[in-house]
Amino acid sequence: MCLGKTITGDLPLAATLNSQKIYKTFSSDNHGVNAFLHSYTYTGNQIVCSIALEIIVTFVPILSILNKEI
Question: Residue 51 to residues 12, 13, 25: CA-CA distances in angstroms?
Answer without folding.
Answer: 11, 10, 30
